[in-house]
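The instructor's notes for this session suggest beginning with a concrete chain rather than abstract definitions. Hand out the sequence below and ask the class to guess, before any prediction is shown, which regions might be ordered.
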Amino acid sequence: MALYWRWPLLLSLTLVLSFTASSNSFGQDTAALDDAALDDNVWHYQVRPGDNIWSISRRLLTDWKRWPDIQAGNNIERPRAIPPGTRLAIPRKWLRRKPGPAMVSSVSGKAYVTDTERHPLDTGTTIEAGAVIETAPQATVQLTFVDGSKVTLHENARVVLEKLDTYEGTEAADVLIRLESGRLDADVQRKPENDSRFNFQSPALISAIRGTKIRTSLLGDGNRGTTEVLTGKVIVEAADRSLAVDKGYGTAADIGKEPEPPTALPEPPVPITDDGPQRQLPVRIAFEPVDGAASYRVRVVPAANPLATLVDVTGVEPVFGIEVLDDGDYQVMARAITSGGIEGYDASWPLEVDARPLAPRPIAPPEDRILRDDRTELRWDPADGASAYRLQSSLSPNFEVLELDVDGIAGESFPVEGLSEGTFYWRVAGIDDQGGPVPFSAIRRVAFEEPPPPPDPRTVRFDEEDHRLRLNLPNTDRTFRYQIARDGAFRDVVRDETVDEPVISLAGLIPDTYHVRMLAYEQDGYSSGFGPSREVEVQPWPYWPLLPLLALLALI
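After discussion, reveal the predicted structure:
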């Protein structure tokens, strides 16, 4: 009897001692939960009111008899009364799993799913593990998972839903998605009671996230992958190397290469907007350039449905012209992209389009053209439903005072003459068959400048020492062309050169009488033509000092 009481003590001690090493494999300090580098083989459960070690084990574990391991690994002293809110670390391989299919919460444009066969994808469809989803150009699909997390697939994307699991008795998700082309955004929920795990794999890199917002993509031909972190922290892996990427940074990797050092996400662009609706097509979307940007992405969505992407375009300039928008209210999102393909934060602003019926479109003279003649012809494309046109011009862009207001123009052009030097603005509106107005066109700005006189080589002295004429002309942003001929009609041209300075050079020509003339090209390419010519004589070389020597040689 003396040893009887010792057996329970020895058994308990053995369990505790034997589990101490294993507890280090999955027991974690709760403070470590904020670290994205948390052991991915361990799941964390938040104790609910009424839970005890046995009810938890029966509900969650494939083998509920492992409750002593759970107790020892988490240092639980009172298994019947575990304080609610306590975080328990449990190896994921001990947990009871079940399929946790995804739900298609939104479809915009054309998208397809392949399970047993390929068919169009609709909102409300349930997607099982193993399915393949593809999106067409300008299409978007949003998936919602059992824990409330959302993944949005953008245009030209192809993903394979490799694993869609949840843990029995919880709403925690264990998801593996393989990205084979395109882009996706992920908003993974962070809930104390559900320690969900999402992994996104591509041929270039792998991103493992919990409670994080990220974007990941395959660029171009699929040889380069990127991941951008908007909240939290993400562990990315490529070529057997892991890298932690914090909020506000992104990384990229080429296939077979290690991830690049994190790059700060570019700041959101500053939009350039006009008051009121846009009444012209194409709709102009513009913003200030962003430092370090190699290109930009612009998305346009309906104001009432931000998931329905209508426009998704990229370009190297911070100005976009969009033709495809109907009249209505929209939201614009624009971001900068680095040369390495890392996309930055979005700028977002409202856009109202009210461009119907379509206004005429000015086509000539070109925007900001400098006219050198006081007469020109204003021309425009026809407007839908217009049987005649009204033309206005003004010296101010707000058209407070009209210089010209002509109604009832039958065609798509109008000649103007007698222009005064300076800048003027013009616009044109259509008139329909009932006499009602079609909206005015965009305002076109035109400048008229009196042409400068052509260069006149008669006004300068010929420098006989270096055989040059230097004209006193401004040469800022101008180029000059001169000709040298043996005749005044310039049929026998011996030199025809374009130079950056107003200098005519006769150097190297044999002694003779020549005619010279010059013209100037303005910065916009305009030239008023050749100016007047002048006659220049290239004197023979003074060889008379050699005459005595020649005479002496002749006598020898």
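Then share the key points. The two ends are 153 Å apart (CA to CA). The first strand starts at residue 42 and ends at 46.
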